[in-house]
């Protein structure tokens, strides 16, 4: 039975940056009111580090924007330091931090522009990581006035200190717990009709003034690579041969001009999506509401912002746009990452949780886990970044179905916080996957054991032919499959062959790439290519073919269409994929079973001497779920490899019914006359391959074949 699930657990982590330097957070119980002077800021990350550090200590940070050649700056700086260091102004009110920002540093980038610094010197205070633009000082005569400057420093200290009106982290933490509790109640409600979002179509991004921008920068996916590997999903971007693609939209005047009720804000939303694995990574986001506040003419009551301005809605539409065609609902969404968080309220809550547990340095995934029934879990859900994920699940329930959030993490750079949520689709247990695979496998076994004439009757009312139309080696070239050089360096394959007594020196690596069809090839984004390939290793003397790497045309064509759709979304007159047939010409020779047969046949003079088919390094989640269930039921303590033979018909059928096993079945079914009347009588599961980064087991399957008319397994060659 399929059982709906709600939010269950949250996990807390930090990923190290390239230097593996850990980031430490201060224990709030040991905080001091002492003023602090910090080393000058020379690059943007330095400023973020200090704003976060002072926010965690409930201390306002005073930034002095200067340059080495600014004489006025050099004259005023000693006065400021005297008040902070010697007179200790602000310590009674909670303390102050002071730092110079060197605007003539070669590493400063556009930091002055971001904080609207137009003259030197400028004094700008940060309270709870937020720049206080309304109280900044730019007039030198005010900075030279010691009494005026003293009063200004006191007011800024009150804003961020414990005695000020800004509040401390405990207030923020308690408020987050209350908010998270309320969100859990909404998520638990069966009827969410009243809170469903009005935004369901990708086209609404363009209609509301969001312009799709090209990939002007690379996303540093290495910051969460360990987490992605541990979760069993791609840890590379599309331009590096992976599955993750970046989508960047800017709310620009050109787009906003199409609608009179839209105000241009230059807000931006950038997400990284992997629709194949259901991964959404929030890269960098500045909502339209916050972007508008950077305008000096900002007035909250006067400005008119359209409803499409929240991350939960825009990110949903961007994720939806990454699919090559309107996906079948519920839309797969398995993991949501909020990386490099700079929100002050979220940071304060996370700092409170980290220090509360007496741990101030984190380096590696997976970190600490909190259940959603705990106070910490509710507080994290109640942060601004947690709320965004929750509201996306709540307001887009029609698209996603029921979800639960499992993990919370910290990510690189070491000074930036990150959240990783795992919203799981309505739970399908491994037992359910087993039942579905078992039913399908029994049907495939029946077709395997049937004669050619009987097979025709079984498939009479279907669109599936009893025999493949691709039986000649020339079909590969005619369908744009080109052979390329390949190697065989699999240690796991070598072990399996040694177990079977097969001479590994007779292995022949065979690989075919597909060069793509013109309708799609000509419209792909420059620099992006479809990775359509079938890699095999054939051993004719041992009667073995092993599928090493398979990149199916069906999946890769969909990804290519997604890339094309993103590239063309803003072109004049362009319609969505739903309205045009771009890329619908998938090659007729597209299934692994057909390509694998041709690879085997062109390497072997006796096609009927096939005795073993291996599916190596399996990553398909459905297949892995079936393997997990069978292992738990039959071999809970087994390690290495174990087998199921003809007496274990149910297990053999379940393996055949998996996505990887079905390919083997159709290889034998649709090539009966060429391969001989074969059936599968034994399956070996090998679990000796381990992904080194996450210590995750990657299983392989060996399907043992025999002639269907053989009375017993003992007469089978090679076993």
Shape: elongated
- Seen as an oligomer or otherwise, the chain set is single chain
What helical percentage do the residues reach? Answer: 25-40%
Structural class: alpha+beta
What is this entry, summarized?
By secondary structure, the protein is α+β, with helices and mostly antiparallel strands. The protein is built from 26 helices and 23 strands. It has three domains: 9-13 and 169-189 and 196-421, no CATH class; 34-160, Glutaredoxin (3-Layer(aba) Sandwich); 430-513 and 533-551 and 588-715, no CATH class.
Question: Which labels suit this protein?
Answer:
719 residues, Glutaredoxin, 35% helix, elongated, disordered N terminus
Tell me what the structure shows.
The chain is an alpha+beta fold and 719 residues long. The chain has 3 domains: 252 residues, no CATH class; 127 residues, 3-Layer(aba) Sandwich (Glutaredoxin), CATH 3.40.30.10; 231 residues, no CATH class. Helix content is 35%, strand content 19%. It has an 8-stranded mixed beta sheet, sandwiched between helices. A 6-stranded mixed beta sheet has the order 8-9-10-11-12-15. Helix 6 crosses helix 13 and helix 6 runs parallel beside helix 14. It is elongated, with a radius of gyration of 31 Å. The two termini are 39 Å apart.
């Amino acid at each position: 039975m399929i059982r709906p699930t709600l939010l269950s657990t949250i996990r807390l982590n930090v990923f190290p940056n390239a230097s593996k330097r850990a980031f430490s957070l201060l224990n709030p119980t040991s905080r001091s009111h002492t003023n602090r002077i910090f080393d000058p800021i020379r690059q943007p990350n330095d400023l973020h580090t200090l704003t976060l550090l002072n926010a965690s200590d409930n201390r306002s940070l005073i930034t002095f924007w200067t340059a080495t050649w600014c004489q006025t700056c050099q004259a005023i700086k000693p006065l400021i330091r005297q008040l902070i260091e010697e007179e200790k102004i602000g310590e009674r009110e909670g303390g102050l931090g002071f730092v110079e920002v060197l605007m003539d540093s070669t590493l400063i980038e556009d930091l002055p522009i971001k904080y609207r610094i137009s003259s030197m010197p400028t004094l700008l205070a940060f309270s709870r990581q937020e720049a206080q633009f309304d109280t900044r000082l730019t007039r030198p005569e005010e900075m030279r006035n010691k009494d005026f400057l003293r009063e200004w420093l006191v007011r800024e200290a009150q804003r961020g200190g414990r005695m000020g009106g800004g509040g401390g982290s405990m207030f923020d933490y308690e408020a987050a717990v209350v908010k998270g509790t309320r969100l859990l109640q909404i998520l638990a409600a069966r009827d969410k009709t009243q809170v469903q979002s009005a935004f369901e179509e990708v086209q609404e991004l363009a209609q509301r003034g969001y312009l799709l921008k090209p990939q002007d920068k690379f996303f540093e996916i290495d910051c969460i690579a360990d987490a992605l590997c541990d979760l069993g999903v791609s840890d590379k971007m599309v331009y590096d041969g992976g599955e993750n693609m970046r989508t960047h939209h800017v709310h620009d005047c050109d787009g906003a001009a199409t609608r009179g009720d839209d105000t241009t804000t230059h807000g931006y939303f950038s997400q990284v999506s992997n629709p194949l694995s259901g991964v959404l990574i929030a890269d960098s986001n500045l909502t339209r509401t916050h972007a508008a506040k950077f305008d000096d003419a900002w007035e909250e009551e006067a400005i008119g912002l359209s409803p499409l301005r929240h991350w939960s809605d825009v990110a949903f539409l961007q994720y939806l746009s990454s699919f090559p065609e309107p996906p079948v609902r519920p839309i797969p969404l398995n993991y949501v990452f909020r990386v490099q968080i700079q929100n002050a309220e979220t940071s304060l809550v996370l700092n409170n949780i980290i220090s509360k547990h007496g741990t101030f340095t984190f380096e590696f995934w997976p970190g600490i886990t909190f259940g959603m029934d705990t106070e910490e879990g509710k507080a994290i859900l109640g942060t601004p970044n947690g709320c965004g994920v929750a509201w996306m699940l709540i307001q887009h329930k029609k698209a996603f179905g029921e979800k639960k959030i499992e993990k919370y993490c910290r990510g690189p750079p070491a000074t930036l916080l990150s959240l990783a949520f795992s919203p799981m689709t309505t739970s399908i247990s491994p037992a359910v996957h087993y039942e579905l695979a078992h039913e399908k496998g029994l049907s495939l076994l029946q077709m395997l054991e049937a004669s050619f004439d009987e097979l025709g009757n079984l498939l009479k009312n279907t669109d599936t032919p009893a025999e493949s139309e691709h039986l000649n080696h020339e079909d590969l070239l005619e369908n744009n499959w080109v052979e390329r050089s390949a190697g065989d360096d699999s240690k796991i394959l070598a072990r399996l062959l040694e177990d079977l007594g097969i001479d590994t020196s007779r292995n022949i690596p065979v690989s075919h790439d597909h060069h793509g069809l013109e309708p799609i090839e000509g419209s792909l984004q420059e620099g992006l290519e479809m990775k359509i390939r079938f890699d095999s290793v054939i051993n004719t003397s041992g009667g073995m073919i092993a599928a090493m790497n398979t990149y199916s045309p069906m999946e890769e064509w969909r990804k290519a269409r997604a890339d094309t759709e993103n590239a063309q979304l803003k072109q004049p007159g362009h319609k969505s994929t739903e309205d045009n047939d771009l890329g619908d010409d998938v090659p007729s020779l597209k299934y692994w079973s057909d390509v694998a047969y041709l690879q085997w046949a062109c390497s072997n003079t006796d096609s009927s001497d096939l005795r073993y088919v291996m599916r190596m390094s399996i990553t398909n989640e459905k297949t892995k779920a079936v393997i997990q269930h069978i292992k738990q039921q039959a071999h809970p303590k087994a390690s290495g490899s174990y087998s199921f033979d003809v007496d274990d018909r149910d297990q053999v059928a379940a393996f055949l019914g998996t996505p990887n096993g079905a390919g083997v079945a159709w290889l034998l079914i649709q090539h009966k006359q060429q391969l001989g009347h074969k059936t599968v009588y034994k399956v070996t599961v090998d679990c000796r391959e381990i992904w080194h980064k996450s210590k995750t087991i990657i299983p392989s399957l060996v399907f043992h074949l025999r002639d269907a008319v053989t009375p017993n397994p003992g007469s089978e060659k090679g076993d």
